[in-house]
Amino acid sequence: MEKVNVELDGKLYSCRGCGTHLALADDLISKDYYCPNGKAFLFRNVILFINVRSNVSFGVPEERMLITGIYIIVGIFCCSCGQNLGWKYESARDKTQKFKEGKFILDRGMIDDGANSQHNIDTAGPVDS
Ligand SMILES: [Zn+2]
User: Fold this and answer.
1) Looking at residues 90-111, what average pLDDT do you find?
2) Number of domains within the chain
3) What are the pLDDT digits (tens) for 44-57?
4) Environment class of residue 120 by beta-carbon count within 10 Å: exposed (0-12), middle (13-18) or buried (19+)?
5) How far is the CA of 15 from the centre of ligand 1 (A)?
6) Of 37, 103, 121, 126, which has the maximum CB count within 10 A?
7) What pTM value is reported for the model?
8) Residue 112 is part of which domain span?
9) Which Pfam families does the UniProt record give (predicted)?
């Protein structure tokens, strides 16, 4: 269950609830993050910036106290099933955390990394550039 598959090329992360594509494995920065539900991944991008039409929708910005400090974040939701997937860092209070601004947290429990199922890869098409 905790086995980490590091074979990232061309892989997609999808909504666990409905299979909507959310992020490219190429945009994964770190698997070392946590959200209130447990493990979370930090992404450079979500599919929002890959497709013209976004696969995620955003909540309203809010100030949130996280483990590493205070941030302005917006919740991100699956456009298809409405599942709360994580959040985007709008801004960080702490200078050392500024690198997270504009990046995305996806709840590990809400996404499917394609390691356990094949449909993500099969339906993804040529995502390598
Ligand atoms: Zn969904």
Assistant:
1) 96
2) 1
3) 988 754 334 567 78
4) buried
5) 5
6) 103
7) 0.74
8) 12-124
9) Yippee-Mis18
